[in-house]
Amino acid sequence: xxxxxxxxxxxxxxxxxxxxxxxxxxxxxxxxxxxxxxxxxxxxxxxxxxxxxxxxxxxxxxxxxxxxxxxxxxxxxxxxxxxxxxxxxxxxxxxxxxxxxxxxxxxxxxxxxxxxxxxxxxxxxxxxxxxxxxxxxxxxxxxxxxxxxxxxxxxxxxxxxxxxxxxxxxxxxxxxxxxxxxxxxxxxxxxxxxxxxxxxxxxxxxxxxxxxxxxxxxxxxxxxxxxxxxxxxxxxxxxxxxxxxxxxxxxxxxxxxxxxxxxxxxxxxxxxxxxxxxxxxxxxxxxxxxxxxxxxxxxxxxxxxxxxxxxxxxxxxxxxxxxxxxxxxxxxxxxxxxxxxxxxxxxxxxxxxxxxxxxxxxxxxxxxxxxxxxxxxxxxxxxxxxxxxxxxxxxxxxxxxxxxxxxxxxxxxxxxxxxxxxxxx
Length: 425
Ligand code: NIG
Ligand code: FE
Known about the structure:
The protein has two domains: 3-77 and 383-423, Urease, subunit C, domain 1 (Roll), CATH 2.30.40.10; 79-373, TIM Barrel. Helix content is 36%, strand content 24%. It has 15 helices and 16 strands. The protein has helices at residues 55-61, 93-100, 105-110, 115-124, 127-143, 159-175, 198-220, 238-250, 267-273, 287-294, 305-310, 318-323, 344-354, 359-365, 368-373; strands spanning 3-16, 36-45, 48-54, 62-69, 74-77, 79-81, 146-152, 179-187, 226-231, 254-259, 278-281, 299-302, 327-330, 391-394, 411-416, 419-423. The two termini are 37 Å apart. It binds N-(iminomethyl)-L-glutamic acid and fe (iii) ion.
């Protein structure tokens, strides 16, 4: 007796199911459990995975309306990019030229460039322009394997412009096949009109922006909405970060923190204390805070494109995080300043070389663990039954090509909720 289903992907040379560990992310040195099945098959019905196993077993049980022969291919979950600033207007190619000439990111930021330059362009753009300038970027990220992408605001820095960024993210989520996960990052930089009184700007974030964002969410966004703060020298102090995150928590938002990108201000310890879903960057994190994070349920998110994009040589000490039993995820940080990176495949190339992750660990960090980093653990980033039918079929037949080869797109086909949304011609 065979059961009719929407889609059967079969004969995969390698199928990496990326299982959860005890119902959670793959923690510490257990990172990299691929759940690998040779000659693997995957049954999808009604947008969700119903079974995974060997091809002969599944073909005996299921009668698919559509089937895909994945002979000669690696099959993995759709990738999850848990930290991006992928919606913005304008560009900063001139700043990059200056940085090549020796100017530092912080120097340019202190002169009113950097995030503030993108803020000017973003404030001047209406929602349609923001959508138009971000659409192709998100499509390219999807074509490189991402099926869920977190996107932050943070280039508006006034209430209406921040809400416009959320409107653009929600519209792109509705329009594009990928799922977007919005994060309110009103505390990304201190806008020029508050340059002399950053506490006053923090009051605006706490008293005006967060309530406005919560009201927008109640009307327009039935899923999780995160609040994030750039806790850094020249951005927001530890006390300011606490004020903002506590207010966001009171308004029902889940928390993220940009911490230790350049300087260690205590943002990691604070994020752990407040039960943040993730702490991101983690380059300059002191050993005791690595330990504290490892004992918590907070996911550590590393974005190797950022130091790479800045031409720095310090990366997240990923193995220290793994030894401390942290759950590690990786992301692009796609943004116009430090890391205009649209490909998680390039993140694999950097993570293997500079974070010293294996190919399997890198894949787990951008799938099963990244799902937890956006609050959708078990729902995405894994091919276990019950998860969404988000799948990448690769042009290569072995997971060990990931990170090893770089600079060309190795994706063959992207499937979102059981539907093909991209195919390499
Ligand atoms: O993650 N650290 C803060 N935000 C970004 C940079 C944003 C920008 O320069 O536009 C980052 O590196
Ligand atoms: Fe960032």
